[in-house]
């Protein structure tokens, strides 16, 4: 493993210039009436409920567990009564909604401040994190699911930044000395779990503190998705044993630290709010807050609410709640209207990674919408996906392997290196769902192996 | 604009129900959809991650190629008309030449598009596929590679072969092994040699003036050596026949409709590379292969070898259809390899084969068509080899 790196190499950077970057301004969102936990949004999780509708819970009370490994429990992000359990297709648990009490009570665990932490070994620390319901903040790098506590990773990556448009930069959630202390404690805890803890960070991001800056091992340039821990890991690994690694988001590391220092399940989140007709800014709120309290676009029709970044996020709505990992809310125009002779227009304002529109000369960031901008066609082997891929996969060939049922071949192409950044699907002129296919195939492969 | 849009909208909305599933004209649904999509760009919401998508789609992609084909098309029309009028001893001013050319070229293009569209539609209706925009390119590329005297029924037969055998039997756009336009060209070339080769087919003139007969039936530049050129003297011979380097470059000589002007192909290639539609690798490699082989054959030239051995290699660049083929046919992404290094080899070998066929094989004065088709066949192998090499370099997931 290359233990430090100045930059990750890439064939091309898409140079995405997307309008709507939030103003650098942090405030607090109004207190929500409900919070929820969304098991559906945790990859590969089969949840078993531990509480039912009408039960009363405190912050940190186990709500549900992982069927495959019952040690992994997921804690309630709020204190109150379970108001509703929302199911999706095939009885997948979509949301467990908690109506919040005025008085927020918490489950109490033994605190382990930084000085006491050193006495713990990896096994004891894992148990503490599992019991406290904070273990799910640590994720597996390949499948992006909750890390398996039974394994020991080659490295743990901390993603201080997330350039998927638009996420809060580190200085919005590392403001007070307390934040910084929690973050440092979080790093320290991860160092107990694994000797290789790396912090990756976008080149120009400020961490607000020299002591924390000195913890950064990998500074990467290139924009999204080059600061993604999976991309940095791909470029840093040197042998097959390095493949198995974990990662945690920067805010999640701060939460780990807060849990250990206070002995209470932490619920604070800083969320980027961006998009059309909203005041783009960063807002302090809590885990599982409803999207509606974070942004108010005035009218809700014709808007697509995206929880998470524009590339990795999923469709949501003002009545839905943020998933455990989501720290961004984007609101974009739902879909373009059928534009007359749309494909012949010069396209001064059309965002693209290609050079086929005049917008290549447009220096301004351009507005995006939730439209396919074309209809599905056969692959013409143009190679745009290959040029966009940050981990040197040949997506069009890997995709064809999968469609032909040649999973072994797809694996040898590096399917498990796919970081699911979505750029291949983004650039495809034939509008082929490459990323979706890779993600589903990876997940099917994982299920088959266990 | 608003008024046009509203009324155009009405034109499509009124008959829509007949074309939807269950309607009377359900089978023509793909045609209706294709035409509507041209006038009104489809708007479809994203469902899967990523929820935002690039503005580039296949329609834009393929129409970029059409835009790049405008220079050879316009020049081809003018050139065809010019030589037609020259042969008939009429005025060769620009406008009359252009209109005469239009009268000759337009029917060929229309037949190519109409017959090609018929087959596209038939397969789209049976397969329940949308009509792919790649057809727009094939339907225009094919006529531009034909002599202006070609009978229209042969155009129909050719495009039929190209679309059906060259593309649809493989499963349609994206799955074809050979470039459909070149497959069509190869079919008419071998099926109707009398109309596709020789010296008499390159000028379309209704009534050939008595004195102009020689000019009309003169050999094409690549066939000029049939006149038994003396060794080392081929450039002189070409010049004698009116084919100076400049003429060949600008393209004002009788030949295929769109393939004579290296300059127009250069313009098109430049545009395609700027837009990122065609691979500069394929084009540069083809030029390199052509020049390298030309130089090598120069070294081997002797009084006993065929006359083209000794030509200045740069003549190969501008003579015949090489420039057109390298710019528009070799760069067809479907039939070229999809990996970067394979493209270099693919292009280079196209250049090499073009010269070898031209120079060493006296049966075929022109080689670019066969060279590209031949390399089309090897593209999957080149691609496969590069993928294997790339896969070897990856750190495997044990």
Short key terms for the protein model shown above:
A: 450 residues, alpha/beta, 2 domains, six-stranded mixed β-sheet, five-stranded mixed β-sheet, globular, B: 398 residues, mainly alpha
What does this structure look like?
The complex is a heterodimer of chains A (450) and B (398). Chain A has 13 helices and 18 strands. With 450 residues, chain A is α/β, with parallel strands linked by helices. Chain A folds into two domains: 247 residues, no CATH class; 79 residues, no CATH class. Chain B is an all-alpha fold. Chain B is built from 19 helices and no strands. In chain B, helix 5 packs antiparallel against helix 14, helix 9 packs antiparallel against helix 19 and helix 14 packs parallel to helix 17. The longest helix of chain B has 34 residues. Chain B is globular, with a radius of gyration of 23 Å. The termini of chain B are far apart.
How is the topology of this model organized?
The complex is a heterodimer of chains A (450) and B (398).
Chain A (H helix, E strand, L loop, with lengths): L25 E3 L5 E4 L9 E3 L6 E2 L4 E5 L6 E3 L4 E8 L5 E8 L13 H4 L4 H10 L7 E2 L14 E5 L10 H4 L3 H17 L3 E6 L7 H4 L4 E3 L8 H8 L8 E5 H13 L5 E8 L5 E6 L4 H4 L8 E5 L6 E3 L11 E6 L50 H5 L6 H9 L3 H6 L10 H5 L6 H16 L1
Parallel strand pairs in A: 1-15, 10-11, 10-13, 11-12, 14-18
Antiparallel strand pairs in A: 2-8, 3-5, 4-7, 5-6, 7-8, 9-13, 14-15, 16-17, 16-18
Helix pairs in contact in A: 4-7, 10-13
Chain B lengths: L1 H12 L2 H4 L9 H11 L18 H11 L1 H18 L6 H34 L6 H11 L7 H13 L15 H12 L1 H4 L16 H4 L17 H7 L4 H6 L11 H14 L4 H21 L12 H6 L3 H8 L10 H21 L7 H26 L5
Helix pairs in contact in B: 4-7, 4-14, 5-6, 5-14, 6-7, 6-8, 7-9, 8-9, 9-19, 14-17, 15-18, 18-19
